[in-house]
Amino acid sequence: MKTYEGGCHCGRVRFRVTADLDGVTYCNCSVCTKKGFLHLIVPPQQFELISGKDDLTTYQFNTGTAKHTFCKVCGIHSFYVPRSDPDKIDVNVCCLDGVDVTTLSIKQFDGRNWECAIEKKVPWR
Ligand SMILES: [Zn+2]
Questions:
Q1: Which of 15, 51, 58, 73 is the most buried (most CB within 10 A)?
Q2: What's the number of domains the chain is made of?
């Protein structure tokens, strides 16, 4: 595992995450598609918020399980609490410093058909 730093666009929100980038997933659901979010789900002990706690705000919809946190200044969703794993943190790989996402092998999650995809245990982490 490797430690990465990342954050939002304006730099207020900064975090550190320790993980492998071999479980990066693209989700085709309504919100992830529009955000362009690339998912990397880690246990909370592998995630550390360095700064920006007070600059985060949360968008919730549908079941309300997912907590879509984003920077209220620049609007970037750099990490959030996912519906599939509400006890974990889902980091946006696009927000990691020095990571070229075009070199990653990216899995697909059929979030548009969420219940079905979760039951089939489609690769997700
Ligand atoms: Zn920001």
A1: 15
A2: 1
